[in-house]
What we know:
Rossmann fold, globular, eight-stranded mixed beta sheet
Amino acid sequence: MELLKIGVIGTGHMGRNHVRNLAEEKRFDFVGIYDANKAQAEEISAKYGVKAFDDMDELLKEVDAVVVAVPSSLHKEIGLKVAEAGVHALIEKPLATTSEDAVEITKAFKEKGLKLAVGHIERFNPVFRELQKLVNPDDIFYIEAARYSPFSGSGRITDTSVVEDLMIHDVDLVCALMKGREVTSLHGRGESVRSGNTDFATCLLDFGGKCHAVVNASRISQNKVRAITVHTEDSCIHADLLAKTLEIYKSTNLTIDLTKDNSYRQDGVVQKLYVPIEEPLRAELIAFYESVVNGAPIAADGDVGVSAIRICEQVAARAKK
């Protein structure tokens, strides 16, 4: 098996998770890490036995690919530097803080002939991957998605709206289910409750009049929810991304022995599927390896990242009003 020389730039919460997976996954030659916080980098270096570089440029000289897990505000600066160095990249979502910056990053990688993947990790949730196998976008007429979290001033991002923080995940998943079909119109509404920014938001996406989706996101709820329900003429499929279950509802007109007193009519059937547990982040990294080494398609490339940001920018603007 060909090994991919890879490094990690940024060792915060997501960066640490990438480091953990890369240190264990045999497909990678894990060259090293870089973080502007040298003490943090040294801590991660000691824990996982990986080299901490004092200079990002030195790391880029030694690798063929990197994971960029720095704050979103630094994605453009570092992303362009990575492209200039001729290194493939997996950049955490969102690709940039604005769609204009995301376009610039995507263009830079395309011009260099480099692979660019965006860390829309929920695409690699095993439940969502199974859901994609079960539905044909031509059959879908309605999708509803909900992503709710309790409020935590220190635990969640509060310097931006819930749209960029949470809703962007499900906007991307809905678009993935519709396999690139264009969003022809959208509406958004939001409420600011705890943070000074929009904490609860709803958006309605229309796909050319043939299907529409309602996406709700909250960081002020009393419960935690990660769910998508897909409606077709023949079925309703509910995917619980937390419980890792799929429920398929179908109507039926089955009648059991009308000649007996205990006969009954069955109006519907429910099929429950339990999906094998798989860490989405590891699946994402393996998919990145396959795209760089074996030329496999990228699930969420730069264009996907740009599209998600553009939709969320419009939703956020409408919700703020």
